[in-house]
C-alpha cells in the first residue's frame, strides 16, 4: 500500500513537469503557429491591410505542485491560440506580467491586440 502511494505521488509530481508546449493539444499548436508577433509601427505598412480582431490574452497558472511551473512562454502560446480563434494572424504584444492573482500561486498573463493581415490587391 505504501509503495503504491509513493508511485502515485511520483507520477503526479512528474506530470507537473511537462514543458509549456506539451500542455497544449497538437491541433492548438498548429493553429497558433499561423499567428506571428509584430511591432506597432508595422501597422503603417502600405502593402498590407490590417484589420483589428480585438484584444486577446493568455495565462499560465501554477496552483500546486501538480500544475507545473507557470511560464511566460506558455502564456504567449495561449495568447496566440486565442488570436487564431478570432481568425487573426498577427499580434501586437501589449504586456506580459507575473502576479499571484486568481487561484494561482504564480501566474503569467500576457495581453495583446490581434490583427488579420491581408495583402492589398
Automatic annotation (TrEMBL):
Query: GO biological process annotations for this chain's record?
Result: intracellular signal transduction
Report keywords, A-Z: Signal
Where in the sequence is the signal peptide annotated? 1-23
The record's Pfam families line, in alphabetical order, gives: RcsF
Q: Read off the InterPro entries from this record.
A: RcsF
Q: Is the Nucleotide-binding keyword given for this protein?
A: no
Please provide, in alphabetical order, the Gene Ontology terms of the cellular component aspect for this entry: cell outer membrane
- Per the record, the domain of life is Bacteria
Does the keyword Signal belong to this entry?
yes
Please give the name of this protein: RcsF protein
Task: Look up and give the organism this protein is from.
Answer: Pseudidiomarina insulisalsae
Amino acid at each position: 500500500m505504501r509503495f503504491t502511494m509513493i508511485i502515485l505521488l511520483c507520477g503526479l509530481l512528474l506530470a507537473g513537469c511537462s514543458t509549456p508546449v506539451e500542455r497544449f493539444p497538437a491541433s492548438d499548436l498548429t493553429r497558433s503557429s499561423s499567428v506571428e508577433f509584430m511591432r506597432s509601427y508595422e501597422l503603417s505598412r502600405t502593402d498590407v491591410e490590417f484589420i483589428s480582431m480585438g484584444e486577446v490574452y493568455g495565462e499560465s497558472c501554477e496552483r500546486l505542485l501538480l500544475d507545473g511551473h507557470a511560464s511566460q512562454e506558455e502564456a504567449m502560446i495561449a495568447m496566440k491560440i486565442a488570436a487564431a480563434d478570432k481568425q487573426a494572424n498577427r499580434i501586437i504584444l501589449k504586456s506580459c506580467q507575473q502576479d499571484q492573482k486568481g487561484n494561482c500561486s504564480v501566474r503569467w498573463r500576457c495581453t495583446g491586440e490581434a490583427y488579420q493581415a491581408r495583402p492589398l490587391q
